[in-house]
DNA sequence: ATGGCGATTCCAAATCGA
């Protein structure tokens, strides 16, 4: 079984690339972030044609998340229950597989812009709410994967310039503490379960030849619960779509499980 | 220190992303 996550920065623009990527990478589930479109504009038909069911939580212009899957999705939850939020950032659903159900939690974490800002404070509140909800979600669904654009570089090795960017957004002590709190729930960063190349990132700035110079951050992650941990066989970042004409600034992350 | 690119929207200067 393969699970993937990809921030596609506008599904309207990137739909052809998503369909092409799925044809070349027929994963069982793909979590998308930054749809930037409302549900009435979501391309259910084109994705069905590509062989995928889909559930979505969209919004005009900003944010928006969806889960695509080979098999039907059930028990869909949109945004964090009990956490009032104007922004479409979370969608969770259960996928039945040969080895049992898997709970998929797809998140577009808050960016936060700048430490000390109101947006950063919103990021901290959102991270706390996610953590508190995931505790109950994990109890209800032991086989759980948390996938998405976390907007956090968990460690110095996840940044192209950890010294120059110390305590800037995605690198702050507070954001990293929240990431560690998610791990403390029993989740494991699938990418770090395996030996990986040096300077491996999942996002590169469009500006200043960021990708060509590999000035990137590893901010897109797949975390797996204790019950799934032993079944994870591989986790990779697929840099190929970042080389496409008109690419997303993020690359897909793929986890392979038994 | 700032902007640099790309997408979106009251269609075009402003906002947001990371």
Description:
The structure is a single chain. The longest helix is centred in the middle third of the chain and has 23 residues, at 118-140. The chain has one domain: Endonuclease/exonuclease/phosphatase (Deoxyribonuclease I, Chain A, 4-Layer Sandwich), CATH 3.60.10.10. With 258 residues, the protein is an alpha+beta fold. The strands form three sheets. It has a six-stranded mixed beta sheet with strand order 3-4-2-1-14-13. It has a six-stranded mixed beta sheet with strand order 5-6-7-8-12-9. A two-stranded antiparallel sheet has the order 10-11. It contains five helices and 14 strands. α3 packs parallel to α4. It binds one DNA strand of 18 nucleotides through loops.
SSE blueprint:
Blueprint (H helix, E strand, L loop, with lengths): L1 E6 L3 H14 L4 E5 L10 H6 L3 E5 L7 E5 L3 E6 L11 E8 L2 E9 L9 H23 L3 E6 L23 H12 L3 E2 L13 E2 L11 E2 L2 E5 L1 H4 L2 E6 L15 E5 L1
Parallel strand pairs: 1-2, 7-8
Antiparallel strand pairs: 1-14, 2-4, 3-4, 5-6, 6-7, 8-12, 9-12, 10-11, 13-14
Helix pairs in contact: 3-4
This protein binds one DNA strand of 18 nucleotides through loops.
């Amino acid at each position: 079984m393969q699970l993937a996550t990809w921030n596609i920065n506008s599904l309207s623009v990137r739909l052809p690339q998503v369909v092409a990527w799925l044809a070349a990478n027929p994963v069982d589930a793909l979590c998308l972030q930054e749809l930037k479109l409302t549900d009435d504009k979501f391309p259910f038909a084109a994705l069905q044609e590509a062989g995928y069911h889909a559930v979505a939580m969209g919004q005009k212009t900003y944010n928006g998340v969806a889960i695509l899957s080979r098999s039907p999705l059930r028990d869909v939850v949109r945004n964090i229950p009990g956490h009032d939020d104007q922004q479409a950032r979370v969608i969770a659903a259960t996928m039945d597989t040969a080895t049992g159900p898997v709970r998929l939690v797809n998140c577009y974490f808050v960016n936060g812009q700048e430490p000390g800002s109101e947006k950063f404070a919103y990021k901290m509140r959102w991270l706390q709410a996610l953590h508190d909800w995931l505790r109950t979600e994990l109890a209800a669904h032991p086989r759980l994967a948390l996938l998405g654009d976390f907007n956090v570089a968990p460690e110095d090795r996840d940044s192209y310039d950890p010294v120059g960017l110390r305590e800037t957004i995605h690198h702050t002590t507070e954001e990293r503490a929240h990431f560690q709190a998610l791990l403390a729930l029993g989740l494991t960063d699938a990418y770090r379960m395996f030996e990986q190349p040096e300077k491996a990132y999942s996002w590169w700035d469009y500006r200043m030849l960021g990708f060509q110079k590999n000035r990137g951050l590893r901010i897109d992650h797949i975390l797996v619960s204790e019950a799934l941990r032993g079944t994870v066989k591989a986790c990779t970042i697929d840099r190929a779509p970042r080389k496409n004409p008109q690419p997303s600034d993020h690359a897909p992350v793929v986890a392979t499980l038994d």
